[in-house]
Amino acid sequence: MRLAVMGAGAVGTSVLELAAEYGHRVVAIADSSSAAVDATGLDPATVTERKRETGSVGTATVETALAAEYDALVEATPTTLGDAEPGYSYVVEAFERDRHVVLANKGPVAERYADVRAAEAASDGDLLFEATVAGAIPTLSTITDLGPGHVTAVRGVLNGTANFILSRMAAEGLDYEHVLAEAQDLGVAETDPSFDVEGTDAALKCVILANVLYDREYTLADAAVDGIADLPGSVLELAAEDGRTVRLVGEVADGEIAVGPRLVPENGTLAVTGTRNIVQLETASAGQLNISGRGAGGPETASAVLADVGRLAKR
Fold first, then answer.
1. pTM of the entire structure?
2. Is the predicted pLDDT of residue 297 greater than 90, yes or no?
3. Which residues contact 177 (CB under 8 A, 6 or more apart)?
4. What is the distance between the alpha carbons of residues 210 and 256, in angstroms, rounded to a whole number?
5. Is the pLDDT of residue 58 over 90?
């Protein structure tokens, strides 16, 4: 398939670099202010080198990338709240051209789900968004295969930054500020980590899960969210004395969404360490299913994007 990639961060550039391995070609890629377009397929090395040297992926405009001849739009711009722009407008434009859309950006399906589904319904294009929940972990495709009506609840550890911090606090007896600084030095946490440590990122993923499970529109405003920034190290010490630990857990059940620090068994399935994520699906017929892996990262998330592209190609 011919792909147009909106967003040239870690995920967008990874899609550009990996697309050929999956049998597809990227004919356009755009960052916030420029684009590179080639109907025969872009050379990843040329684009990434130019981006590194000049700060721009090319000399074309973003509008030129949107107007390119492609089969599927890959929306990988940063997640924004509220109006979910500019990603939402890119999605609508692709659907108006009867193109498929694959999302890595959580905003459109976490904040404007009904609008996106309406645009899809009016189009010959289809929407897939595996990469918006837990990176490389095949969460949404598993729910689709099982049938959303057969999944009674979903819970999990859905943010690698928060999990790294809690894991280190528990293992080394360190305080939050010390581990956060370490995570920032390692590139695990952003300079402004609030999106992760306040629980917003995990909550957005849970909102998307709720939208899929219940086929109605939830937004971030519908989630009860607590983060880990105010969690004292003494809580983890007390938990360890009782054979437990603390993880930032998101849960969707009975039409409700909640994210916050939870006590879990120290050796239980939810006590994943480092930046790993885990998703638990409670099902009506198959019991509990656990899926674990890397929940973030450029190549990891790009693999989920390209898996969706492959599904669309088979259609």
1. 0.95
2. no
3. none
4. 8
5. yes
- pLDDT of residue 174 exceeding 90, the answer is no
The pair phi, psi for residue 250, each rounded to 5°, is -105, 145
Does the pLDDT value for residue 226 go beyond 90? yes
CB 233 within 8 A of CB 246: no
The verdict on whether 51 is a catalytic residue reads: no
Q: What is the DSSP string of 116-155?
A: HHHHHHTSS--EE-GGGTTTTS-HHHHHHHH-GGGEEEEE
Residues whose CB is less than 8 angstroms from the CB of residue 186 and which lie 6 or more positions away in sequence, other chains included: none
Give dist(CA 301, CA 315) in Å, integer: 22
- Residue 143 in this model has a pLDDT that exceeds 90: yes
Domains of the chain by start residue, with CATH? 2-135+298-314 (3.40.50.720), 140-294 (3.30.360.10)
Which listed residue (51, 106, 205, 314) is catalytic?
205
Residue 186 has pLDDT above 90, yes or no: no
Residue 296 confidence (pLDDT) above 90:
no
Give the integer Cα–Cα distance in Å for 313 and 281. 28
Q: How wide is the angle at C-alpha 154 spanned by C-alphas 91 and 293, nearest 5°?
A: 75
Secondary structure (3-state) at 271 = coil
Q: Where are the alpha helices (DSSP H) in the chain?
A: 10-18, 44-54, 62-66, 87-96, 107-111, 113-121, 139-146, 160-172, 176-186, 194-197, 200-214, 233-241, 298-314
